[in-house]
Amino acid sequence: MDRMNDHDNDFQVLVENYYEGLFRFALSLTHKEAEASDLTQQTFYLWATKGHQLRDKSKVKSWLFTTLYREFLGSKRRESRFPHYEVDAVTPELPSIAPQQVDTLDGNMIVNLLEQVDEIYRAPLVLFYLKQHSYAEIAEALDIPAGTVMSRLSRGKAQLRGLISKESTADSQRKVVSVNFSRPNSSVSHE
Q1: CA torsion sign, 159 to 165 to 170 to 175?
Q2: pLDDT, position 56
Q3: CATH code, 96-172
Q4: CA spacing 20 to 30 A to 50: which of 8, 28, 126, 181?
């Protein structure tokens, strides 16, 4: 038990010695207090889980600052690959689907409808929505400019919306067949 207390005390001393400097460094990178605090906490978390691997304890400070910087770079890479947008800012880009259409949508139907989208638009749609590629990655993969990627995505979404609308209209016109499993002799009824 004494060993655990020593470890806790060592960690507390480490935090006391380096927290302020790490936080200021993180703040200079992020320019936001909340993000700087998160980066600093993540750095100490990584120290708590991996710090024992550092052989030369005189390099703790260097390890902490390097780790914080790498975490910052990693967060920027994730942010550029998966940018965060407020819903209100991207509402025009979202497909407009009536509430009654949502009730009838299903993943397999969408994948089947996606197969009906023109190939020139289908590839960017699949790469963007299903494979989570950025515009730049799609442009590189398809060897087209990023602007072309954006216009193909827009046209592909419009084409898919039309197919969804047509499918949900056709679904509402089909007869619904339900099976009643509550009786020993299950019967099929047409509504």
Answers
A1: positive
A2: 87
A3: 1.10.10.10
A4: 28
Helix and strand numbers (H, E) in the chain are 9, 2
Enter the pTM of the model. 0.45
Q: Tell which residue, 101, 147, 153, has the closest CA to residue 126.
A: 153
Per-residue pLDDT tens for 53-97?
Answer: 888 888 899 999 999 999 999 998 888 888 777 777 777 776 666
Fold entry, domain 2-81: Rna Polymerase Sigma Factor; Chain: A (1.10.1740)
CA-to-CA distance for 41 and 75, rounded, in angstroms? 14
Q: Residue 175's closest CA among 154, 158, 189?
A: 189
Domain ranges of the chain: 2-81, 96-172
